[in-house]
């Protein structure tokens, strides 16, 4: 059986909502993702996320290093399945980094961050990472986090500063969904402050 | 033949044609289902003739299905609750999008079905015209 567009999508939405409300907490999309049954080239959990987020009324942009021409294939597929139109990076409502090596740093400055009257007209990033269980250690603080929370996100040290800069003028900023290879989900709303904790020993 | 015309023929014509074409594809390649046939509602967009503005006439029940035919997406949408037809339309659409060789043999049966539809329509119109009333008015 394939993904149920009502119940499975709703279940995924609840998990995304929880992840956004309690930044740094991890939800698992693995069970829902296993119903997708398609060879996508990226984790099926991300496809589930896209079925929740994308429809004919929002735009998206797939970005990546694209050494294989897959970005175009993925974009066409996503557009055909969700009916969401594509848009250039600076106009897209959703920016999808489906390749793990895609560099968030260079892309952040160009994404929509909203304006003071409509801060919600900003881009939401959906990003594929290798792991949300191992990697660079970070301390998170902010709304939804009692005191602080320690998390691990692989490759985060590359973009922590760029993200902080993009989100420096609240309410403007960008929100991020992270999905790792095991289907783990973590969300980083613009209000969350991230501090890189250098690994012990030198 | 464009997608619109082909879909119209498959829906309005004898449904066994859609069944046969779909089975032809299934026997040849493996079909992956992206979306099982499911019901949805679409708003019917129309243009009114007074000021030529767009408006929504109302909602319409449709059945929608999406499949992958050799890596090509196929989409089937049809009015009403018609899960089998929606699936068949999706498979046929996928085969056309992938320009599968067997689609070339489909032109003939599609055109035959189109002729049959036209004939049936002409017959119905002829029946209706029999009931036409001739009015004559007198200028007094």
Features:
heterodimer, A: 202 residues, alpha/beta, 6-stranded mixed β-sheet, 3-stranded antiparallel β-sheet, 26% helix, B: 140 residues, alpha+beta, 4 helices, 3 strands, 29% strand, extended
Question: Can you offer a commentary on this structure?
Answer:
The complex is a heterodimer of chains A (202) and B (140). Helices cover 26% and strands 20% of the residues of chain A. Chain A has six helices and nine strands, in the order αβααβαβαβββαβββ. In chain A, the strands form two sheets. In chain A, strands 1-8-7-4-3-2 form a six-stranded mixed sheet. In chain A, a hairpin with a 4-residue loop joins strand 7 and strand 8. Chain A is globular. Chain B is 44% helix and 29% strand. Chain B has four helices and three strands, in the order H-H-E-E-E-H-H. Classes of the chains: A alpha/beta (202), B alpha+beta (140). Chains A and B meet through helix 4 of A and strand 1 of B.
Question: TL;DR?
Answer:
Chain A has 202 residues and is α/β, with parallel strands linked by helices. Chain A has six helices and nine strands, in the order H-E-H-H-E-H-E-H-E-E-E-H-E-E-E.
Q: Runs of chain A with pLDDT <50, length 5+?
A: none
**Overall residue-averaged pLDDT value of chain B:** 94
| Main beta sheet of chain B | 3 strands, antiparallel
* Strand order in the sheet with the most strands of chain A: 1-8-7-4-3-2
Name the overall outline of chain B. Answer: extended
**Range of strand content of chain A:** 15-25%
What pattern of helices and strands is seen along the backbone of chain A?
Answer: HEHHEHEHEEEHEEE
């Amino acid at each position: 059986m394939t993904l149920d567009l009502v119940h499975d999508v709703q279940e995924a939405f609840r998990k995304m909502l929880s992840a956004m409300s309690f930044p740094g907490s991890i939800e698992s999309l693995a069970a829902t993702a296993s119903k997708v049954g398609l060879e996508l080239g990226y984790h099926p959990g991300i496809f589930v996320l896209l079925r929740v987020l994308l429809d004919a009324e929002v735009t998206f942009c797939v970005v990546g290093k694209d050494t294989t021409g897959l970005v175009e294939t993925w974009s066409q597929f996503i557009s055909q399945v969700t009916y969401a139109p594509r848009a250039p990076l600076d106009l897209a409502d959703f920016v999808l980094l489906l390749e793990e090596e895609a560099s968030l740093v260079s892309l952040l400055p160009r994404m929509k961050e909203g304006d003071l009257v409509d801060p919600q007209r900003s881009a939401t990033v959906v990003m594929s990472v290798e792991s949300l269980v191992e990697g660079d250690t970070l301390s998170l603080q902010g709304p939804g986090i009692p005191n602080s929370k320690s998390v691990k996100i692989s490759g985060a040290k590359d973009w922590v500063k760029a993200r902080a800069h993009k989100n420096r003028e609240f309410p403007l900023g960008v929100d991020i969904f992270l999905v790792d290879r095991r289907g783990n989900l973590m969300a980083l709303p613009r209000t969350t402050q991230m501090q890189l904790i250098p690994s012990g020993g030198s | 033949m464009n997608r619109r015309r082909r879909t119209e023929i498959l829906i309005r014509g004898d449904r066994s044609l859609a069944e046969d074409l779909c089975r032809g594809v299934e026997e040849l390649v493996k079909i992956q289902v992206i979306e099982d046939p499911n019901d949805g509602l679409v708003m019917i967009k129309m243009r009114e003739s007074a000021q030529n503005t767009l408006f929504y006439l109302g909602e319409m029940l449709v059945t929608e299905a999406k499949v992958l035919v050799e890596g090509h997406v196929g989409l089937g949408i049809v009015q009403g609750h018609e899960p089998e037809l929606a699936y068949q339309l999706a498979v046929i659409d996928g085969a056309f999008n992938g320009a599968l060789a067997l689609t070339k043999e489909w032109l003939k049966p599609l055109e035959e079905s189109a002729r049959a539809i036209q004939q049936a329509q002409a017959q119905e119109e002829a029946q209706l015209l029999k009931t036409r009333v001739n009015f004559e008015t007198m200028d007094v």
